[in-house]
Design goal:
With 136 residues, this protein is mainly α. It has three helices and four strands.
């Protein structure tokens, strides 16, 4: 029974997790707008979601050999949901080598935040529907 509930909520849960990770990535781009030679990063959300849904329930492979259990995984630093981080293509370069375009980053940040809120609304509606079915 629990596994069916997990399956019912898995898509929206995975999408929310990816949206949260992407929001952090976009916030990092905005925070580094004045950092010389900083390269703006983003993900292809559709590929990341497909990769995350395909890997649900399986352990992620380790790309690097760890000499201590306290070491971080190298795969987590260069990918989100199985999709690798991409460098954003710039329209207008900066003289200091920074590729962050604030208008683009703000638009992507706002769009991602709105989609995150929509995901929360959908998962809330799913839970309300389950409660209605249980309570009658």
């Amino acid at each position: 029974m629990i596994s069916r509930l997990d399956d019912y909520l898995r898509f929206n849960e995975t999408a929310l997790n990816l949206r949260a990770q992407r929001q952090q990535l976009l916030a990092s781009n905005i925070a580094n707008a004045d950092t010389p030679n900083y390269k703006a990063r983003d993900i292809d959300f559709n590929k990341a979601l497909q990769g995350a849904m395909a890997r649900t329930g399986t352990a992620a492979p380790e790309d690097l050999t760890k000499t201590s259990a306290a070491h971080l995984s190298g795969a987590a630093m260069n990918s989100v949901g199985g999709a690798s981080l991409l460098y954003r293509v710039t329209q207008q370069g900066n003289i200091d080598g920074n590729t962050v375009e604030m208008d683009v980053e703000r638009n992507q940040f706002t769009d991602n935040a709105l989609r995150y809120e929509a995901g929360l609304t959908l998962i809330s509606a799913q839970i309300k529907n389950m409660l209605t079915a249980i309570q009658g």
